[in-house]
Write a structure and sequence with these properties.
heterotrimer; A alpha/beta (318); B mainly alpha (307); C mainly alpha (346); B: mainly alpha; MetI-like fold
């Protein structure tokens, strides 16, 4: 479905280039939910947003992203616009503000559909109503203004809008971060049904900083740190046998049900993530890594440690 | 309040701000030095010594810019150069202009400062206290916002027995604050909800300390921009008042120059040097102020940046 | 359950707009009371004897002085307690009696204003509407095109910064004195009688165009700048980013951003009204155009207090009506008013 090779996305600032995504490679297969996790500032949001829309100061500095045989990094604007929404769509991080407050939901959808050649108003409106029902919203929502909807309702409405034209690849960028736990669960279940049951979308890239969510929903997980990939693998392997020190630290910092705080303390990750203007040489984690060795000052390769399981750490060399 | 080197660098990187700043700087310098370079007084007359006394005397009327006029003194006729010509009364235009500029800048400062201060106070209290204080203050503010300032100024100024530059600044300042109050209140409201204010409150800081120690410093940039707008607005209001005859009862100002030009038919007679320069000075001055303001807006609000 | 939601939203819809309009009406009513009160109080607060000052002007016209003396005592009710004076003032105002003009004696102020008002509206309404429309359009264009922006913005800034009457002077100088194209004073030539005849209208328009252009161009600058900033601001908004992420063309983005950028321009219109009215007054002075502005100026120069008071009230009233109309319009255009449960400060 999507193949990303050594993608480099920097931000141009008056003080220099911020290397937000610095040589990231991964694949998303058809029919899978691909999770991307990491702490704030690791580059995951930049990564997925760069696939959909690049605006200054975001600059494409190198590498490619191949969707359906075409490199979307070098696509001309006209072609790019055509594949947006139809092949590639996004539920953005700013979903709660994504809907034009002065337009009704159905008007927004109608305008977007027309851009892509779907001029039949009734057909689109009917599809909209069906989908609204599917996510548990009243059909009346189509006629409402965004201000009439609560947070959870808006999130679901945006999900419906983003997937209305049945895009092959859907990106969900921190779509649960602003919601309470009940709504979170509803959204996750909806997303799951979109891909596995209703087959509205073929693949999903799911961004979050919450590993617990990925445990529930993702098929494969990719961990990012400071603009680089540190580990990719199937969910059970990542969760139960994390290989990279960073993954381990991430998992250890999460509270787990059934384990009392008095028995096993939550471990925070010491230090801070590096500023990406001048990141540390070699492995980006080495200033904070408890297992750091001399060789960590050199850039580690992605080493295969299992079927579909890769890690970028010198400990697994040879 | 500290202005870091970086802020200054960004500030002067912005074209609008730079241009506006230069314009204002030129005008301020001109207002300070200009009067020293001209022998005429603030009304455009030439002070002639009659023994112990000094009497103002006009030059030749309606002279074009650059011409040479004559003043008759006990010592004989003195030749004087009129860089911007004279009006129908023989008064030097350049002198009137430069003294008038001084007076305008003065009014802008006093009235603008007054309006900003009152607006700050009211906006703060309304935004921070909330409740009935907020409701009542905002009710007053809204009422005053609807009433056209000019109408209010007219009705007050028309009944004053004597008007001077100070009084004019006072009434302009007292009627121009509502706009500032509303804006300050909105800012205060948004800052009030921020974490550091709650922290200050929990740590037991007194309310005035919170207002002036925590909230105000964060609004400084905004307050400064508001002040600049009030400065410009006051100058325009004063010019308008002067023009319709409600300015200072004695003396000269840019607005009064324009009023007299119209009253004495300067346009019909073709004396463009009387009617046009005063307004031009105002227009360029205000343009400079607006440029500074927009520049600052772009600096503090990256969303508006274009370069 | 769907029906309940429908009923609920209908109820809230009405309540949102109703609440908004009621709040606005309250403010305007209070403002009017405030204005009338100020109109009443200010002359009485000034030091000195107002009647004496007024009468001294008529020292050379004894009959007038006698009549006016009696009238003043009556009108001011100076022999009655203050609160009674206040009430009779209100009574007079509500009956449309604004006193008798001193300068235009014996014409009643109300009549003078009534005759002048159409000329004002003929100047104000077209200039406000046309400058708002053209200004917004130009501003949107400047917001969109960077090149256009850098050429035009300085012009708009300069226009906005010019005092209305100074711009009028420039126009008068260029078009009347130098080019002799348009007249410089009055609303119609000597010997022409106001009527609905074509000769009058043609002559009137000839006199009307320069004052109109003065008001038009200065306002234009302001709207253009405002709209340009709004467009730039809106274009960075999240909802625009979302639309673009879903493949919207630039035209569609502009369409959405434009509608949102226009809303504050409408409220901006209400806020600008006071300044525009003030500008109107000064422009009329330059052209001796017989609107309320010119009348007011005559009143000021001749210390005709009744005229000044009457003009003040009428100006306030027109501004209030205009504000209310704009608020009404806005309530129906911005859906957030209908459905918002919280209110921001007016």
């Amino acid at each position: 479905m999507l193949k990303v090779n050594n993608l480099k996305i920097y931000y141009k600032t008056p003080l220099g280039f911020v290397k937000a995504v610095d040589g990231v490679s991964f694949e998303v297969k058809k029919g899978e939910i691909f999770g991307i996790a990491g702490e704030s500032g690791c580059g995951k949001s930049t990564l997925v947003n760069s696939l959909v829309l690049r605006k200054p100061p975001m600059v494409h500095m190198g590498g490619e992203a191949i969707l359906d045989g075409k490199n979307i990094m070098t696509l001309n604007e006209k072609e790019y616009r055509k594949i947006r929404y139809t092949k590639l769509s996004i539920i953005p991080q700013y979903s709660l503000n994504a809907l034009n407050p002065t337009k009704r939901i159905k008007e927004i959808v109608r305008d977007l559909a027309k851009e892509h050649g779907y001029k039949d108003r009734e057909e689109i409106e009917n599809k909209l109503r069906e989908r609204l029902k599917m996510v548990g919203l009243s059909e009346q929502v189509a006629n409402m203004y965004p201000i009439e909807l609560s947070g959870g309702m808006k999130q679901r409405a945006v999900m419906v809008v983003s997937t209305l034209l049945d895009p092959k690849l859907l990106i969900a960028d921190e779509i649960t971060s602003a919601l309470d736990v009940t709504n979170q669960r509803i959204i996750l279940e909806l997303l799951y049904s979109f891909i596995k049951e209703e087959k509205i979308v073929d693949s999903i890239i799911f961004i979050t900083h919450d590993m617990g969510l990925l445990d529930k929903i993702a098929d494969r997980i990719m961990i990012m740190y400071a603009g680089k990939v540190v580990e990719i693998g199937p969910t059970e392997k990542i969760i139960n046998e994390p290989a990279h020190p960073y993954t381990q630290m991430l998992l250890n910092s999460l509270p787990r049900l059934g384990i009392s705080y008095r028995e096993i303390k939550l471990q925070e990750i010491p230090g801070e993530p590096p500023a990406l203007l001048k990141p540390p040489s070699g492995c980006r984690l080495h200033p904070r890594c408890p297992y750091a060795m001399q060789i960590c000052k050199e850039e580690p390769d992605m080493i295969k440690i299992g079927r579909n399981h890769f890690v970028a750490c010198h400990m697994y060399r040879g | 309040m500290k202005i870091s080197k970086e802020t200054l660098r960004i500030a002067f990187g912005n074209t609008k701000f730079k241009v506006g700043f230069v314009i204002i700087l030129i005008f301020v310098l001109w207002a300070m030095i200009g009067p020293l370079l001209t022998p005429f007084d603030s009304m455009g007359y030439y002070p002639v010594k009659f023994g112990e006394r000094i009497a103002p005397k006009p030059s030749l009327p309606s002279l074009k810019p650059g011409s040479v006029g004559e003043i008759f003194t006990p010592q004989g006729a003195v030749e004087v150069k009129h860089y911007l010509g004279t009006d129908s009364f023989g008064r030097d235009i350049y002198a009137q202009l430069v003294y008038g500029l001084r007076s305008s800048l003065f009014i802008g400062l006093i009235a603008g400062g007054l309006a900003t201060l009152i607006g700050l106070l009211i906006g703060f209290v309304a935004g921070y206290k909330g409740g009935w204080a907020d409701e009542s203050l905002m009710m007053i503010t809204n009422i005053m916002l609807v009433i056209p300032t000019m109408a209010l100024l007219i009705i007050i100024a028309a009944y004053l027995p004597y008007r001077g530059v100070g009084i004019e600044s006072l009434i302009i300042g007292l009627t121009a604050w509502p706009w500032t109050a509303r804006a300050v209140r909105a800012q205060t409201l948004s800052l009030k909800r921020r974490g550091f204010v709650d922290l200050a409150r929990i740590s037991g800081m007194s309310e005035s300390k919170i207002l002036f120690g925590e909230i105000l410093p964060n609004m400084m940039s905004y307050v400064f921009m508001v002040f600049i707008l009030q400065f410009g607005g006051s100058i325009l209001a004063a010019v308008g008042l002067d023009f319709i005859g409600l300015g200072p009862t004695r003396g000269m100002s840019l607005g009064i120059m324009l009023q007299q030009a119209v009253l004495w038919n300067a346009i019909n007679l073709g004396y463009w040097w009387w009617a046009i320069p005063p307004g031009l000075v105002i227009a360029v001055l205000i343009t400079g102020l607006y440029l500074i303001n927009t520049g600052l807006d772009e600096i503090f609000n990256p969303r508006l940046r274009r370069e | 359950m769907v029906k309940n939601i429908q009923a609920m939203s209908e109820g809230y819809k009405m309540s949102g707009i109703k609440r908004y309009l009621m709040r606005k009406s309250l403010i305007y009513a209070l403002t009017f009371v405030f204005a009338v009160t100020i109109d009443f109080i200010i002359p009485r607060l000034m030091p000195g004897d107002p009647i004496g000052v007024l009468l001294s002007r008529f020292a050379t016209l004894p009959d007038v002085a006698n009549y006016l003396h009696g009238y003043f005592i009556e009108a001011f009710g100076l022999n009655k307690p203050l609160w009674q004076q206040y009430l009779s003032f209100w009574n007079a105002v509500l009956h449309g009696d604004l006193g008798i003009s001193i300068y235009y004696y014996p014409k009643p102020v109300a009549q003078i204003i009534r005759e002048a008002l159409p000329y004002d509206l003929a100047l104000l309404l077209p200039s406000i509407i046309s400058s708002w429309v053209v200004g917004n359009w130009l501003g949107a264009y400047a917001g969109k095109s960077k090149r256009f922006d850098s050429y035009l913005m300085p012009i708009f800034y300069f226009l906005q910064a010019s005092p209305y009457f100074w711009f009028a002077i420039i126009l008068a100088y260029v078009f009347t004195v130098k080019l002799g194209l348009f007249p410089i004073s009055g609303a119609y030539g000597y010997g022409v009688i106001p009527s609905f005849s074509w000769t009058f209208i043609k002559d009137y328009l000839h006199h009307w165009i320069l004052p109109f252009l003065s008001l038009f161009f200065v306002q234009l600058g302001g709207w253009a700048i405002g709209m340009r900033n709004m467009i730039i601001y809106e274009v960075e908004a999240d909802y625009v980013r979302y639309l673009e992420s879903l493949g919207a063309s630039e035209r569609l983005l502009m369409k959405h951003a434009f509608k949102n950028a226009m809303l504050p321009q409408i409220t901006g219109l209400a806020l600008q009204l006071g300044l525009i009215v003030a500008g109107n007054v000064t422009v009329q002075v330059v052209f001796s155009y017989p609107g309320i502005g010119y009348i007011l100026m005559q009143g000021i120069m001749n210390q005709d207090y009744f005229l000044i008071q009457g003009c003040f009230l009428v100006i306030i009233l027109t501004v209030l009506i205009a504000n209310f109309t704009i608020d009404l319009l806005y309530a129906f255009i911005d859906p957030r008013i209908r459905y918002s449960y919280t209110e921001e400060g007016a």
